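A quick aside before the break. I want you to see a complete sequence-to-structure record at least once, exactly as it would be stored in a machine-readable document. Don't worry about memorizing anything.
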Amino acid sequence: MYYPDLTPYCYFKSASSDGALNIGWLDNRNPFPTKRASETLLDALFERCLYSVVQTRGFHVCELCDNPKREPMKVFRHGQENSLGSAEIRVKGKDGRVYAAPTLIYHYVAAHDYDPPNEFVEALLADEDRSDF
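That is the input. The structure line, written in tokens, reads:
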């Protein structure tokens, strides 16, 4: 499911009332910026994906992988496991902007070097309160 970064979120109408902006809704037909992620960013993304929202009954697979498995993606970091592809995360910036991303964003950054917009990264690294969502 592709939505350009920083466009208004609209995937689930019931979850779009906060004026969120899309981040990391990638597919294999649209180019995206790349850069090797820092361990700090990977840690923050993994942690945020542990507190996902908008849980669905189905799941998405990574269209960027050569042979995607037709099952939820399991990832591991620092001894913890998480399943990706069936939920979203929300990140609130200091300016009040809200960013909505699929949990697959962790995989996109870790495995495919996706470089999310700086304003999202800054908000993620500064935001330690997940209780708003």
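Two observations worth writing down. The mean pLDDT is 89. The two ends are 22 Å apart (CA to CA). We'll return to this after the break.
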